[in-house]
Amino acid sequence: MMRAHIYVSGRVQGVFYRSNTQKRARELGLVGWVKNLIDGRVEIVAEGEEENLKKFIEWCRIGPAFAMVKDVEVTVEPVTGEFKSFDIKV
Fold it and tell me: Is 20 assigned a catalytic role?
């Protein structure tokens, strides 16, 4: 198991980035959350199998069709097991 704290910058708000992130995370069996930040970035915390989490991070570097990702910052953290699903935080 692995946990990643991810910050995505670029044109990532108003382009369905959060909903597509949730969909992709669930497809990969990940748990955690995604939310928009006031500074225009998207913040993600995700936990799951290492191989699936790596696939997810690669997806984050591209995002959905209308997104234009400029940068993805990833920090690996200790797994907490606190999540039951992957949700969108408001």
Answer: no
DSSP string, 22-44: HHHHHHTT-EEEEEE-TTS-EEE
Spot the catalytic one: 11, 20, 36, 52: 36
Q: Do the beta carbons of residue 30 and residue 45 sit within 8 Å?
A: no
Confidence of residue 19 (pLDDT cuts 50, 70, 90): very high
Domains of the chain: 7-88 (3.30.70.100)
Question: What pLDDT score does 37 carry?
Answer: 98
Give the span between the Cα atoms of 75 and 66, in whole angstroms. 25
